[in-house]
Specification:
By secondary structure, the protein is α+β, with helices and mostly antiparallel strands. It contains 2 helices and 5 strands. Helix 2 links the parallel strand 3 and strand 4. The protein is globular, with a radius of gyration of 14 Å. It starts with a helix and ends in a 5-residue tail after the last strand.
């Protein structure tokens, strides 16, 4: 049975969660929504709040996963992040990251973490 885009996205987010947790991050929220905007993952490490966009691709013929975050999408993520920061009265540092997951073959994947990917 062929996986849907949503199932592939969920798998990618699950891999990203485990990856971040292994690096010492605490996941504060998954698929956090503000209006029609969504942030895939919101993580915290010490006094740093990180807004993470997760991109997964099985085939790289059209480009690498990290190349699929458009300027418009980055703007929507930043707008949603602003709402999250206000709602939580966060006064620490923030960062916007991309986690790119290349799904190589069944069960195999490569993960790249692009810190401070946009601002």
């Amino acid at each position: 049975m062929k996986k849907t885009s949503r199932q592939k996205g969920d798998k990618g987010e699950e891999l990203a969660v485990h990856f971040l947790q292994q690096k010492g991050y605490h996941i504060e929220a998954r698929n956090w929504r503000h209006g029609r905007f969504e942030i895939d993952l919101i993580a915290r490490k010490d006094e740093l709040l990180v807004f993470v966009e997760v991109k997964s691709r099985r085939h790289l013929a059209f480009g690498f996963p990290e190349q699929f975050v458009s300027e418009a999408q980055a703007g929507r993520i930043m707008e949603a992040a602003e709402a999250y920061i206000f709602e939580r009265a966060w006064h620490g540092n923030i960062r916007f990251d991309i986690i790119a997951i290349k799904l190589v073959s069944s069960g195999q994947h490569l993960i790249e973490h692009f810190e401070d990917a946009f601002s």
